[in-house]
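User: Fold both of these, please.

Assistant: Here is the first one.
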Amino acid sequence: QGAARPAETLSPRAGGRPAPRVEPAMRIALGLEYDGSAFKGWQTQRAGVRAIQPEVEAALSRVADHPVSVQCAGRTDTGVHATFQVVHFDTSAVRTPRAWVLGCNVNLPPQVAVLWARVVPDDFNARFSARARSYDYVLSNRQTRPALWRGRVSWECRPLDVEAMIAAAPQLLGEHDFSSFRAQGCQAQHPIRTVHRLEVRVVPPCIVVRVEANAFLQHMVRNFVGTLLEVGLGRHPPAWVGEVLAARDRRLAGWTAPPDGLYLTGVRYEPRFGLPMPPDAWPVLAAYAGQAFD
């Protein structure tokens, strides 16, 4: 479809000639899923570096027939996936939700898909209106490396004491200074975050770590996982995780787990915005079926 034609009015200054009437912009929210293994993260970067944001903006611009810029709920790093990313953009183009979804998907690479579209109030912001974000970290724990899930799950070939990892996880719940789990190059203004949920479960043949927080520091989830793996490998007792948290020193925590197994699985907003709720399957990628059209 082409862009909606602006309505015409008579302009007294132009001697009665038609003048375009600019339609007020509306704000649209989109739900996305993507395989991050082919991209250097979400955010637009220098020329020649493939990222997800410019792919989405280019597709939307074709559908809207004007340049579109988007803001996302959470910028994912290189190799990180999403089953429930949320973005918003402003447009004067008149399209149905179905048209936004189908039109964008025709113009997106196969690793990225739009799941749903909703008109939202002007005060909605995909990033700043979010009340919580959640991630799943999916780890294959077996002797041989996964071939079919290469790039989509992480892998640990050594036996893990999952019960010890489960015992260690609750120490990271609540509001804390998470400097011990913050990447050196993190640009957040402060390290205080509130973790609402942190669970470790065995979902054969994988181990899944699920984390929900109001916001995240760079590499925070991957550093959580690397630290829990230190416990799972028997190098430290569960209580050590609390000591690492209290120290506020990144050098004391575990390694940064690879990005392959990390998924942005949910962003939660106030009900008044009328956006779909993320699914709660374990792990989410095993059962997520997308969003049906209205």
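And the second sequence with its predicted structure:
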Amino acid sequence: RSMVEGLNAVVRATYPGSAVSFKPNSPGGGVLAIAEGQADFTATATGTEVKLANDGTAPFSKPLKGKFSYVMQLYDNQFIHFLMTKEWADQNGIRSWADIAAKKPRMRLAINRPDNPQTTIGGPYEVMKAHGFTIQDIEKWGGSYVLGNSQIGLDAITDGKADVFMNARNLGDSLVKDVASKRSLLWIDGDRGVIQKAADVFNNKADMVEKGTYPFMEKDYPTVRMWVALLAGSHVSDEVVYKYVKAVAENEKRVQDIGGSLKSAFTTAKMTTNPANLPYHPGALRYYQEKGLVK
């Protein structure tokens, strides 16, 4: 919410009197809302929501292709955290994704709900598939789920109610460090090439989390790195989108000062980055062409 309110504040400062407001929603719900004209913009979409919405794949009930378009990339540093307690890992002889696939251990998995697809379908689910098993196999192996956001998941790890955590956090996250001070943690190891195959499904990429990012990381570990974009519904006028893009593009420092992922990853030069090759909204395209950011 703070990110969206911050962006809206930049627009209001640039265009005094602008009626810009925030309507809470989930990443998938936000795409559905702009496609159905219930909202103009959504600022939490990743390649997962884009592809699932275009294809009409769950959690979307019908294809939405052509009902929304690309406005800008906001940041590209959303990292999925693949963590396990050292106690569970030692008990089951697990250090890597390959170990999990081979040993089929009983696990209590803290993961988001599938109606938040970017941190489930678009990340962990595909990494599991790339290693020869699925989210459904967790229960077949005698395991269970703690479903909810990353705060709920980390609380479950702290309280001894979960063994494995898969969700997005900022790198070097203070809450993860706090949990690690109470429960010994490990990062699930793997092959970057295999992780890349999983990431490719939704136009993401594999990246390495550097040694020392957390106290328990004695080397670099691979994960899925996601981008997050601002999308607009096809009903939104070219002029509205043009002004929104102009306000954000010409206030780079103020946007970065909103904090969070924007602080370290937003730049005007990267706004046109479009990993999913979704059509640009005409209003956004007009601004980018005027500034020579796209041909």
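The mean pLDDT is 95.
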